[in-house]
Every structure is written in structure tokens, then in C-alpha cells.
Design brief:
Layout: E1 10-11, E2 29-31, E3 34-36, E4 46-49, H1 58-61, H2 67-78, H3 80-94, H4 97-105, E5 110-116, H5 131-146, E6 150-157, H6 181-198, E7 204-208, H7 219-235, E8 240-244, H8 246-249, E9 264-269, H9 286-306, E10 310-314, H10 328-348, E11 353-356, E12 360-361, E13 368-370, H11 375-390, H12 401-418, H13 434-456, H14 464-472, E14 479-481, H15 483-500
Parallel strand pairs: 4-5, 4-11, 5-6, 6-7, 7-8, 8-9, 9-10, 10-11, 12-13
Antiparallel strand pairs: 1-14, 2-3, 13-14
Length: about 500
């Protein structure tokens, strides 16, 4: 889709780079319902997720489908050597010391780093842990350490996929991780290696073993968490675990209240649909405010009953693009009001730790976004527009009505006519309708893969110099900052600072 950035507010080069760092990192631990430092003082973690870097996502950097397909498509067009060059330079520019300085200047003290297992393991050599994966993570951890920013290591994609979505990079719409013990064993093996590598490192706040797991039986997730906890603790007894609830970090119904895992923070994700392009927009009514609180209270009920810390691992609205949407300014004003109300709720719940989604992208949701006039955006914008028109990216599509009316509504009607007696049955997750299940398979898997080949052709014939310019579009000095969003986040950090002074 077209990148939904608000009107350019400031280039990143004009953003503050003051090194307003937090107190030096020390080993964090759980103490009752709090996260505390080595001196026993409460630490509220506030930061953002670095999605799109070590775990790429289609709406964040503009391709369609799944990351491994995107990488393979570019390798076929560019050749493996040039493709590797492009991706390595993209990763280099995506987060640097300049980004860490901006991050710290906002009062943030924690960066959640999503990563894909493929950086550490090849599927054809599953027993080998690659040093190159540690090299990528170590660079980020070292940068964060210089600015006293804690890091949460988030395994965002595992073999087979722990959920049904594109961001687990399975290439399909099933979570096969739960069906094959071998996949589960490999993820345990990876955490064993990570624990050995990062044991004793105070910059690491803790380990987020699985992002948004979705186990239809619920029991396999709990068993895997117990295995992961024992494996990690045998090597690294100090670092906290950040454990997502089931069904995309929103369901704790199967979690035993009387048996929370030790030194563990439990994590929900708290997206509000009122912050997305759906009919109900946030108007600030008492009813909507009550709905927000009720939703969050439901998600954290387990943590309150088990008396463990709460971490909201992902949340945040998306933003409309004033270059393409004449109502964008009014819409974004509502989105910012929603964001402020959610921040207020998190403060009300005894200063919940949180990580907003997300730090950087091509303009839909990020605190920082690639300049629309950059080489990268000039190259891919027509393709992104086509994705928008075809409704290929679930997360990054504002309006699918045209393609639905022309293609999918009659198509779905014919499909439903063939299985009328089964339409009331619900596939997991049960909140997804038949229409949504078809959309996932047809649009987000099949058609997205075909269109990924189309995007790759945009890179054909590019020289290394041209590829460097494309990758450098993601460098902070070549990006824009979403200043209104960042100012609200800074204000929230200041409220906490004044409260704890």
C-alpha cells in the first residue's frame, strides 16, 4: 500500500540527538509484581520494537508475502552475492548509534529486538548454530549498551511458524511448530545457545522465547514454555523471561494462576482496532474509554491474579498519509488521542512496562519512517500502491472495498455455497471468519508470493552503488520522524521520571 505517513514533520537530521541516557544498565529481575534492578529499585521498561530488521515484515519494508520468499526472489534477480550485499547493508543502516541516541532522547530505556531463527539456523543443517546470527545481535546489543538501553531478545519466527501469520515467516497459513516435536526442539536448541552467549550481560533485560504463539490446543505452549525455562535457567539463572500469552499474546485462560514460572514477566499485546482503518474510530467517548480499559483488564487479569509483572509487548495505532488521504489530518488526530488514552491506562495499572510497535518502517506505523523521496521509496512506491489496491498485506491495507466488491465478495459467495453446513464451525483462532481464512490463504500467501517476484524485478540490473543507496534510505539521517507521536511518548516518559524522582 502507499506508505501512510502523516505530513512530513521533520527530517531525522533535524531531530534531537541529545544523549539523554538512562541510568547505567544493571541485571534486572522480578520482585513480586515489579521489575527491579540490582539495587532493588523498580524499573519500568518503556521502548519500541525493532520490527523489520532481523525479522522483516511485508508492510514494514514494502515487499509482499514472507521474508524468506522475498530474500529468495531478490537472489534470483540479483544473484546471491549482490542480494547478500543489499540485505547486509539494509541491516547495517536500519539501526545505528544515531537511532540509539534518538531513542534515548525520548526517555526510552528498552529496545525489543525481534529476530528470525533463520539468522542462526539453516533448515538443511538444523544442528548448526551460525555465528553470523550472534554477530548481528551483538552489534545491536553493543550499541544499546553505549546508550544504557536495555534489550529484550524476541524470537519472532521459529521453524514451522508458531502462529498462522506472515511475521512467523513460515510461508503458509498454519502453525506447524506445534505439530512437529523437531521444530520445538530446534527452538530450544537456539535458546540454549543464546543463553550461553548472553548469560551475565546486564544490557539484556531478558528473553522473549516466542512472539505471539498460537497453539490451537493451548497445552503444547505451556509444555514448551516449561522446557524453555528449564533449559535457559540451567545455563543462565539470572535473566528474566518475557512470556507471551497464547493466541497472539491475548489469551491466558489455560495458564495456571498458582504456578507462574519463576523470574518471569508475562506479556500481552494490546492493539485497539479503533486505531486502524475500520468503521469505528476513536472519538474519545466515555463508552470507548471504558471499552479500552475493559479490554486491557481482561488481557492482564492472569498477571494480576498470579501476582507477576505485566509487560505490554506490542501496541499502537497506525497513521494515514496526507499525500493520499484528504482526511488524514483529522484521522491521525484521533489516533494520537487514542494513543494518549492508552498511555494513561498503562500508568493507571501501576506503570505497566510496554514496547510500542514500531520504531521504523516505510510510513504506516513507525516512530521513524523512510523519506517518500528516498531512492528506495521512489523505486518501490508503485508496487506498494498495487499491494494497497489488491489488499495483499493484512496489516498495511487501508481500504479493500474495491477489490472485495469486484472479486472477493462473489468468489466467497460461491465458496460458501459449497459448504453451507460447515460455515458455523470455527477454525482456530475462532474469532476469524470463513472470509478471513480464505483471505489469508489466497491473498496473503498465494498472491503475495506471486507479487513478490514482481517486486524483485524492480531490483534487476542494480549495481552495488545503487543497492547501497537503496539500503541507505533506511539510515536515520535519510528518514523522517513522526514528531507528534514521539512527543507524546516523550511526555509519558517525563511523567514517570517526575513520579519516581
Amino acid at each position: 500500500m502507499a506508505p501512510s505517513a502523516i505530513a512530513p514533520e521533520a527530517t531525522a537530521s533535524t531531530a534531537t540527538k541529545a544523549n539523554n541516557v538512562n541510568p547505567h544498565c544493571s541485571m534486572l529481575r522480578v520482585s513480586g509484581t515489579k521489575i527491579v534492578d540490582a539495587q532493588g529499585k523498580q524499573v519500568v521498561l518503556k521502548g519500541a520494537g525493532l520490527g523489520g530488521m532481523l525479522n522483516m515484515e511485508n508492510f514494514i519494508t514494502g515487499y509482499s508475502g514472507h521474508e524468506h520468499e522475498h530474500r529468495e526472489a531478490l537472489a534470483k534477480v540479483l544473484g546471491q552475492e549482490k542480494a547478500d550485499f543489499f540485505f547486509s547493508r539494509l541491516l547495517h543502516h536500519f539501526f545505528t548509534e544515531a537511532d540509539a541516541a534518538l531513542f534515548a532522547s525520548l526517555g526510552f530505556n528498552c529496545l525489543r529486538i525481534p529476530f528470525n531463527y533463520r539468522h542462526f539456523m539453516d533448515d538443511n543443517e538444523p544442528g548448526v548454530i551460525k555465528q553470523s546470527g550472534f554477530d548481528l545481535l551483538d552489534r545491536l546489543v553493543d550499541i544499546c549498551g553505549k546508550y544504557n538501553i536495555y534489550v529484550v531478545l524476541d524470537l519472532h519466527a521459529v521453524p514451522g511458524g508458531q502462529n498462522q501469520d506472515w511475521h512467523s515467516d513460515s510461508g503458509i497459513s498454519k502453525a506447524l511448530f506445534w505439530e512437529f516435536r523437531d521444530f520445538q526442539d530446534r527452538a530450544i536448541q537456539l535458546w540454549e545457545a543464546l543463553a550461553k552467549h548472553y548469560a551475565g550481560n546486564p544490557v539484556i533485560a531478558g528473553y522473549n522465547p516466542l512472539n505471539e504463539p498460537a497453539d490451537p490446543k493451548h497445552t503444547r505452549l505451556l509444555a514448551w514454555y516449561e522446557r524453555a525455562e528449564k533449559t535457559i535457567r540451567a545455563i543462565d539463572p539470572e535473566h528474566m523471561l518475557f512470556l507471551d500469552g497464547n493466541t497472539y499474546a491475548m489469551d491466558f485462560s489455560a495458564f495456571p494462576v498458582d504456578k507462574p514460572l519463576p523470574n518471569s514477566v508475562y506479556s500481552c499485546h494490546d492493539y485497539s482496532m479503533m486505531g486502524f482503518p475500520v468503521p469505528e474510530q476513536y472519538e474519545g467517548t466515555d463508552e470507548q474509554k471504558a471499552k479500552l480499559r475493559a479490554s486491557f483488564k481482561r488481557k492482564v487479569e492472569y498477571m494480576q491474579q498470579a501476582k507477576v509483572p505485566i509487560w505490554n509487548g506490542e501496541w499502537g495505532p497506525v497513521y494515514q498519509d496526507e499525500r493520499r488521504d484528504p482526511d488524514a489530518a483529522a484521522t491521525n488526530k484521533k489516533r494520537f488521542a487514542l494513543l494518549q488514552e492508552q498511555l494513561k491506562i498503562y500508568r493507571e495499572f501501576d506503570d505497566v512496562s510496554w514496547s510500542i510497535w514500531l520504531y521504523k518502517d516505510i510510513g504506516y506505523q513507525g516512530m521513524v519512517y523512510v523519506d517518500p523521496e528516498s531512492p528506495y521509496m521512489r523505486l518501490i512506491q508503485p508496487f506498494v500502491d498495487k499491494k494497497q489496491r489488491l489488499g495483499l498485506d493484512f496489516w498495511g491495507v487501508a481500504d479493500k472495498s474495491a477489490i472485495d466488491d469486484a472479486v472477493y465478495t462473489p468468489f466467497l459467495a460461491k465458496l460458501k455455497a459449497e459448504v453451507p453446513e460447515h460455515l458455523q464451525k470455527k477454525k482456530y483462532p475462532k474469532i476469524w471468519t470463513f472470509d478471513r481464512q480464505v483471505e489469508r490463504v489466497v491473498r496473503e500467501v498465494l498472491l503475495s508470493e506471486y507479487h513478490g517476484w514482481e517486486m524483485a524485478e524492480l531490483f534487476r540490473g542494480k549495481t552495488e552503488e545503487e543497492l547501497e543507496a537503496l539500503a541507505a534510505s533506511f539510515a536515520l539521517e535519510n528518514c523522517r520522524t513522526r514528531d507528534t507521536l514521539n512527543e507524546h511518548l516523550r511526555e509519558d516518559a517525563e511523567i514517570l521520571r517526575e513520579k519516581t524522582a
